[in-house]
Each structure stands twice: as C-alpha cells, then as structure tokens.
Amino acid sequence: MSNVNPPGYGYPNDPQQNPYGQQPQQPQNNPYGQQPQQPYGQQPQQPQQPYGQPQQPQDPYGQPQYGQPAGGQQPYGYPQQPPYGQPQQPYGYPQQPQYGGPMGPGGPGSLPLASAGDRFLARLIDGLVLLIPVVIISFTIGAGIIGYVIIGLLYFGYEGAMMLTQNGQTVGKKVMKTRVVDAATFGRPTDGGLWTRAAVYGLPVAVYCVGSLFMLVNVLWQLWDKPLQQCLHDKVAKTVVVKEG
Prior knowledge:
The protein has 6 helices and 2 strands; from the N terminus they run H-H-H-E-H-H-H-E. It is mainly alpha-helical. Its main location: membrane.
C-alpha cells in the first residue's frame, strides 16, 4: 500500500506540514537593547522608587521635573509669585494700604503720622473758627447749663459735618495739611466712625468744668500714646491723623 494519504479528510498533502496547514512559530530572539512589547492597551510599568526616597513629579509626557517639588509648588526658600496681572511687591515689604501701614510711618509709599504740633495748631485754628458763635451764645444765653449744652452741640456738629463733607478734614486740618483716616486700612473712616469721633471730642464740653478737663486730657493723650499717637476720641473711633504733602 502507498504511504501517501489522499488529500482532504483532514490529511495534509505534505507530511512535513502540521495537521492544520500552519507553520510552527519559531521563537524570535530579541535584538540587543529592545524591550519586549506589552499587550495592547497596557502601559509599561515604571520602576518603583526605593522606600523612604521622595518621588520626582512627572510632566504630562512622563519626564521628571528636576529641582521642583511635587504638586507644582514653588521650591522652599523662593518667594511665591503673585497671580498674572497683579503688581509684584518688593521683597520684604507687605502690600501697603492707601495711606501707609497700620504701624504709621516708615512703609514704602505711606504717609507719616501728623505731629503733635500740627494737631495742636489745627485745633487752635478750629477754635478761632468757632470763637464768634461761642461768644454770641455766651452773651445771649449766658454761661449756664443751657449755654454749655448748646456749645457742646456746636462743637459736635462742626466736627462731624466737616469730617463727612471734607473727607476727614476740618478748616484747621486743611491749613495744616492733616487728615483723619481709618487706623486699620488707612482709608476713609466710616460715617459712623466719624460721628463717634466727633461725639467723644465735642459733647463733653456740655458738662460744666468736668467737660473742659476731659477735653484737655483728650487732646494731650497723643503725647504718650504709642505707636499711633492717638487721642481718646481716635481710640474710640479707631482712627489716626496723617500728614499730607
């Protein structure tokens, strides 16, 4: 009998071929330096960092960014950069408010606190402005309780109205180039703060003898108050007086 099997019926024509007509796959040797391919859709595994060593941050393309900490933060020892569009402040100086820092003079771009001499002269000029109405009240009504009450209301109304309408200045402060500002922001005080300041300064005049003594202590308080050189009415209203120009 012949050893040749008939074609078909699952028998190959060539006895050297496998039963299904497929060539056996030969193992391929990887060329030197080439990495084996990963299955489709899987990323190659990155080598793990040894325990206790910090990991380098990766950029979107997988390259480590040397010299920068993880999370995109600035390295230690370098000042934080302000957002785009905001001016950079000089190193070592905080951002200053409108009329300077909360501790008074010395900051870049700040206005110094008004001296005691400038404030006394400003009060003297305001006293001369109010002298004529005070004299008229004293001669017409007398130096009784009603007269003191009216004079106290006069000081209160003058101080409060000038502060609100003249941006923190009276006639005397305009002449001496001083201005009342908020102690926290060094901007314009609130209307309530200005009225409170005027009340503490002017209304005690309505009390006979005691009011005059309180006013004297009030205006002298700035001589020993540190560091903002505030009078008592400044402390209650949380204001300070600065020098302009």
